[in-house]
Design goal:
Helix content of chain A: 40-55%
Strand content of chain A: 15-25%
Largest sheet of chain A: 6 strands, parallel
Oligomer: homodimer
CATH architecture of the largest domain in chain A: 3-Layer(aba) Sandwich
CATH topology of the largest domain in chain A: Rossmann fold
Number of strands of chain A: 15
Number of domains of chain A: 3
Number of helices of chain A: 17
Distance between the termini of chain A: 75 Å
CATH superfamily of the largest domain in chain A: Nitrogenase molybdenum iron protein domain
C-alpha cells in the first residue's frame, strides 16, 4: 500500500501512478476481439456455438439451446430463500423509484410569433444487457441494468450471460424472473457483444448495449460503438474516501476493503488531513484482512493498488480527489454537504458516516454501474437516459419565418449553400 | 434517383439499400488513423508539424505558429459586413436561448427517515471542438459546438481546424471572436483529434471532443473514445420528408436539394402517400437543379442516393420513416403535430409547411449537429448534456441505514462479498 504525505519529495510521481490506475491496454486484445466480432457477423449462431464450446466448455445442439427457458427462471425464483426474495424486491422497488425520478421529459416552448421549439424524448426500441458469468455473476448487476431500461420504456430487452459448463447461475435466473426479463441467452464475452450489435438467427440486433465485463467485453463494446450505442467503457472498481478526524477508522478500513475484495486490480484510496486517522486506518485494514474470506484478492489489491494520502488540509484533499475522479467517493466528515460544492468529479458520492459505499451497490436506489479509472471526469452513472434519445422539435409559422428568414438566408448564402438559402426564400412573403 | 412504390415487387430490396445508406467503412482507414494517433501521442507537436506540412501544405516554425492569434480573430470580426454580423448575432442569441432551456439541473429527493438521494450535474473541465476546414468551414458549425459547451459552463474550450496553405477561413475566425473563443489551433484531421485527446506541448488534453469531420476524423474519434468522451460518430448529411397533398412540390424539391448540395454522399428521401405529389416533386427537382451553383454535387447525390417512395397511406409512410431514422425529418402535412406521437426516430423534426430544414441549420435555435445514417435510433442531437456529467448523491442517516441495512447485507453476503456486508453491518445498531 502507498502510504504517503502530499509534502513528500516524491509525492508527484506517486500520485501520477494513482492517476494512471485502471488503464486498460486494449491494443493487446484488439486483434482477437476483432476476429471474434467478424466471425459472429459472418457465421452468426454457428460461430457463437463454436465460441461457447471453446470458452464455456459445452456445446449447444440447436439455436434454441442458446436461450434460457422462462420456466427455469421462474423455478429459480421460487427456490429463493424468503428473506433474500424480500431483499431483492426491496432493492428492485427502491432502484425503480430512484430511476423514475431521473427520467427525462419531452418539453417545448413557444414564442408569440407562432414558433414552437422543444425536445421529444423517446426510448430506444431495444436494449442488450451484458451480465458477466461465473464468479462475477451478480444478480444486483442485472437489476441495475434492467430497471433503467424498463423505466425508459424500452420494448425489447434481452440479456446475454455466459454459462460455463452450461450451468446458469441460479441467483441470476431468479433475478431475471423477478425483473420480468424473458429473453436470456447463454452467450458471453466479445461474442455476446457482437451478437447483440449485429443480430443472429435468434438473438435480435439491439440499439444500445450496456453492462460490465472484462477487457474483451470492454474492447468489443468500443468496437461496436457507432453501430449501436453503449453506456461506457469500464475498468476495475475503485473507491476514494475523503475523511477527517470524525471518521471511524474501523469503518474506513472495511469500506476500503469492500472495493479491494472485488478484484486484484481494484483501487482503494483514502485521502485525509489527519495523520492520526491515516495511522489508525492502516492498522484496522490489517485487522480486517485476516477476517475476510476473500483475503487473498483483497490483500493483493490493497497492497499493490491501495493508497493512504495525508494532506495539509481538506482543501488539498479535495483537490487531489478531483484529479483522481473516483468511481465511488465517500465523504466521511463532520459536515459532508458543505464539501459537496467543491467536489467536481466522481461517479457516486456517499455522504456522511452512515453511508458506506456498499449501500449504493444494492438497495439505496442509484445505479451501481459507474465510470471508473478517472472517466468520471466525462461519463455519468448508467441511467434511464442511456436507454432514451432526443429529437429536436422545430415548428415555424408563416409570421415566424418571415421575421428571421432573411438572416437565415444570408448566412446560408455566405456559406455558399444556395439551395439552403432558396428553401427559406421560397417561404418568405 | 430511386422512384418507387411500397407495393412494388422489389420494394424490400430497394428499401434495404436506403437503410444501408451512409455506412462508413472505418476498417479501410483504421491502420492509417491508428498510426497518426500513435505519432501524435509519442512526438506531440513535432508530429503535428509534420502532418501539417504533408496535408495542409505549410510548415509551422514554432509551437506558437500552431495557434491563431486573438488579434486576427478580432480583425476578421471587424471586417464582417454589418448585415452578416447582425445575422450571426441573431443566430448566437437564439441558439444560446434554446440551449439554456435544455440545461440539466442537479436534483435531490429526501425521505422521512433521513435519506437524501439525487444527482449532481457538473460541467466537464475542458472541451475540444473540431471544425472542418477548407470548403466545409462553416461558421454555423462553430456556433453549434461552442454554445452548448459555454452554456454547460465548461471552463476551457479549445477549437482545432485545419488551415490549408496556412490560410484560415476569415468567416470562421470572425465567428470565433463573436463566440468569445480564444484558443484556436490550426490543426486538422485525425491529428487534431489525437492532439486534443492526449495533449501536446501547447494543446491541452480535453475531456470531451465534439464536431463533424470526414472518415479520418470519425475514425479517430471512435479510437480515442474511452480516453475522452465524444459526441457521436457522424456520416454524410440526410433529409427525410413525410408529405401529403397539402405540401408544395416546389418547396419539397428545394428542401430535398438543400441536403443534396452538401455532399455527393448525402441522402434525400421523400415518402408520401400521394402519387401526384411524388410526380410533381420529381419534375421540380430537375427545374431547381439547373439553377443551383452546386448543381454537380447535388445532382450526383440526388441521382445516386435520392429516393421518392409512394406508400398506401400516411401510417405506412411513418412506419418506413421510423426505420430510416433520418438526421433531419420534415413533416409537411396539414396537421403535422397529430403525427408527432407516431414518429419515433429522427435527429430533428421540422413540422409544417413553414419550417424548411435550413432554418434549423442556422437561426432557429436547436443544434444542427445531429445523428446520421440511422443512428437517430440511439443518438441524440449535440447539446448541453454532451458537456456535462452526473454524479449520484447518496446520504443515509443512522435511522435510514438501520431500516434497510439488513437486506443490503443479506444480498452482499449472497453474492459472496463479505467486506461489503461488514461495511454495512458495522453501522447497524
Amino acid at each position: 500500500m502507498m502510504f504517503i504525505n502530499s509534502k513528500d519529495g516524491n509525492f508527484e510521481a506517486n500520485f501520477q501512478e494513482l492517476l494512471g490506475r485502471g488503464k486498460m491496454d486494449i491494443a493487446t486484445v484488439s486483434n482477437i476481439v476483432m476476429n471474434i466480432i467478424n466471425e459472429i457477423r459472418t457465421d452468426k449462431n454457428k460461430a457463437l456455438k463454436e465460441h461457447i464450446s471453446k470458452f464455456d466448455k459445452w456445446t449447444p445442439n440447436s439455436d434454441e439451446d442458446l436461450q434460457i427457458s422462462t420456466e427455469s427462471m421462474a423455478k429459480a425464483y421460487e427456490n429463493l430463500d424468503k428473506k433474500l426474495k424480500d431483499a431483492l424486491h426491496l432493492a428492485y422497488d427502491r432502484i425503480k423509484a430512484y430511476h423514475q425520478k431521473q427520467k427525462p421529459k419531452s418539453w417545448f416552448d413557444d414564442e408569440a410569433n407562432g414558433t414552437i421549439l422543444g425536445q421529444k424524448v423517446t426510448p430506444v426500441d431495444s436494449a442488450g444487457l451484458y451480465i458477466p458469468g461465473g464468479k462475477a455473476a451478480y444478480p444486483s448487476s442485472l437489476l441495475m441494468n434492467v430497471i433503467p431500461a424498463q423505466v425508459a420504456g424500452v420494448e425489447e430487452i434481452i440479456v446475454c450471460t455466459p454459462t460455463p459448463d452450461n450451468e446458469p447461475n441460479e441467483l441470476l435466473l431468479a433475478a431475471c424472473h423477478l425483473c420480468g426479463v424473458t429473453k436470456v441467452f447463454k452467450v458471453g464475452g466479445a461474442s455476446a457483444i457482437a451478437a447483440m450489435a449485429y443480430g443472429t438467427e435468434n438473438i435480435p440486433k439491439v440499439d444500445v448495449i450496456t453492462g460490465p465485463g472484462n477487457i474483451f467485453v470492454a474492447t468489443a463494446k468500443k468496437m461496436v460503438f457507432g453501430d449501436v450505442h453503449i453506456d461506457m467503457i469500464a475498468g476495475p472498481s475503485e473507491i476514494g474516501i475523503l475523511a477527517d478526524e470524525s471518521a471511524n477508522p474501523n469503518h474506513m478500513a472495511i469500506d476500503l476493503l469492500s472495493q479491494a475484495e472485488h478484484d486484484e486490480m481494484a483501487s482503494s484510496i483514502l485521502i485525509t488531513p489527519s495523520q492520526k486517522l491515516a495511522d489508525e486506518v492502516k492498522v484496522e485494514i490489517e485487522n480486517w484482512l485476516q477476517k475476510l474470506p476473500r483475503q487473498e484478492i483483497a490483500r493483493k489489491s490493497i497492497e499493490e493498488r491501495g493508497a493512504i494520502i495525508v494532506t495539509s488540509d481538506m482543501d488539498e484533499a479535495i483537490e487531489l480527489m478531483n484529479q483522481i475522479a473516483p468511481e465511488h467517493l465517500e465523504v466521511a466528515t463532520t459536515s459532508p454537504f458543505e464539501l459537496l460544492p467543491f467536489i467536481k468529479h466522481a461517479g457516486a458520492i456517499f455522504l456522511g458516516h452512515n453511508t458506506p459505499e456498499a449501500i449504493g451497490d444494492y438497495v439505496a436506489g442509484p445505479n451501481h454501474t459507474l465510470p471508473t479509472g478517472g472517466t468520471a471526469k466525462f461519463y455519468s452513472p448508467l441511467g434511464v437516459e442511456n436507454f432514451m434519445k432526443k429529437s429536436s422539435i422545430i415548428s415555424f409559422s408563416s409570421k415566424a419565418i418571415n421575421e428571421i428568414g432573411e438572416e437565415c438566408a444570408l448566412i446560408a448564402n455566405t456559406e455558399g449553400l444556395t439551395a439552403h438559402e432558396q428553401s427559406v426564400r421560397v417561404r418568405l412573403k
